Amino acid sequence: MQSEGATNSLRRRESLAVKGHPPATFKTPLGTERLEIMSDVIELENYIGGKWVRPRSTGRLDVFDPSDGSVIAHVPRSNAEDIDLVVRAARKAYLAWRDVPISDRARLMLAFRHVMDEHTEELARSITREQGKTMEESRGSVFRALEAIDAAASAPTTMQGYFSENVAKGVDTTLIRQPVGVVAGITPFNFPVMIPMWMTPFAIVCGNSFILKPSERDPLSPSLLPALFEKAGFPPGVFNVVHGDFDAVNAILTHPGIDAVSFVGSAPTAKHIYTTSSAHGKRVQALAGAKNFMIVMPDAELKHTVSAIIASACGMAGERCLAGSIALAVEPGGDRLVEALAEGVRTLVTGPANDPKTEMGPVIRPENRDRILKWVEDGLASGAKLAARGNVPANSKGFFVAPVLLDHVKPEWPIAQEEIFGPVILVIRVKSLDEGLEIANRSRFGNASSIFTQSGKAAREFTHRIEAGMLGINIGVPAPVAPFPFAGWKGSFFGDLHATGRDGIEFYTRKKVVTSRWF
Ligand code: NAD
111 phi and psi, to 5 degrees? Predict the structure, then answer.
């Protein structure tokens, strides 16, 4: 006999299906076991105005399981016509949605949070399968998505305006916030559910309608979100998903019916998104690439520091915008740090993402693997010392990269300046905190940075002087919780208002100031 828990989970699985073409051959990509999933290649469609719609564009791309290299889906390459359809549906929905009372919008958001929480396991399985992070990492990313929804649901408080009485005799002034209109979110491959949730709940709760253009490299998990919105009771057209790559994105950036664009992705794309959206009169925020420095003082507590650095640099195979890339080892602590990191790198267990023993899964595509390996070769050719190289699973068709530790790297080498986005730890030896700060601040990026120390004075000096947006003190992945804003500085961010927190509410609302007098 099945337990009640098992029956419930079965029911949930049945209710959460990605609808694609032809849906009849496909039960659910998440709840079913691996063999059943492998029996079909899913043909994804766009979700527009509450319906799954076959795109006008006939272009398709393959979606892979990076753990074994197999094709698991085809994703549409939507064109300008497809974008126009979704914008029309989103505009229609917006005109009614903006007038729904804010308390009702917030209540629906809480219902959505509840539904997502119920489906955490299915979402996590899907993320693990198409993105390649471990189940633990996938569950963590869904948990961070839930936190973002929690923060957005505070909108009845955070969206409030303000009022001044008697600014002149008998005259009052009121500031009110209203939604911006139709908002598009363009997201990267590394967090296919969490990053859309930095945008969608904040935009929608403020009264906007939303068009998500997820990464074409892992589009299955975001395609589960419509079922969750439907189950929570959102009206059709408030949340839409349109698939594609650069043609779809360029149609979004230039469409006159889109009022604001939120973007997260690599630096060159972010710059393009920012300049093109701005030139077309749209509000835009574009979170970009990174090169994150971790300063390790000689007094750092070694055990925790080493595990934090390895988790930061090699967690999710280094495919995280907050991944630590360079350890600035302040002498005389360099040798003991490198020795301990080398041991950690050598013993890291790499393997298929859904294997519970795996500590580090594959990277997203063979091109990414080859680019990472090329960076390692480049570093060695420049004169770096190979301090350790980990393992990859034998005879696998998956896109695996062994973790690598390179010592005695110089700050002026290209490998120390460009984003690698793979499990590679570089060590630069420095004489002092001052020298470490000077090297880190020379980077054109400024997403995140950490210091490992037991000295409050060193930590304060670091916090005051480092030029980066998200800082960790004895923390390797300093991701702000969602009531706070998330974004970097310098070349890691294009725009003004960051993602999430009060900035999220500011970004998705327009201010109106009313000056009134009554006779
Ligand atoms: P990417 O720039 O290749 O793709 C991001 C999105 O842009 C995708 O939806 C893609 O379809 C679209 N896109 C890609 N090339 C385009 C082009 N030429 N024209 C128009 N649209 C295009 O990024 P990615 O490889 O998916 O993600 C990894 C990058 O994202 C890394 O650089 C990482 O640091 C960055 N990232 C940054 C943050 C942050 O908070 N700053 C968070 C996560 C990831």
Answer: -65, -40
Ligand 1 atom at minimal distance to the Cα of residue 215: 9
Atom of ligand 1 nearest to the CA of 266: 32
pLDDT tens figures, 77-106: 999 999 999 999 999 999 999 999 999 999
Number of domains in the chain: 2
- The reported pTM is 0.94
Spatial separation of the C-alpha atoms in residues 12 and 434, rounded to whole Å: 55
List the CATH number of the domain containing 199.
3.40.605.10
Query: How far, in Å, CA of 259 to CA of 203, rounded?
Result: 12
Q: What are the C-alpha distances in Å from 476 to residues 146, 200, 305, 450?
A: 22, 27, 8, 6
How many residues in the chain? 519
- Residues serving a catalytic function are 321
Q: Give the pLDDT score at 459.
A: 98
Give the whole-angstrom CA distance, residue 25 versus residue 29.
11
Judgement on whether residues 277 and 351 belong to the same structural domain of the protein: no
CA distances from 153 to 99, 107, 125, 157, 484 (A): 17, 7, 26, 9, 14
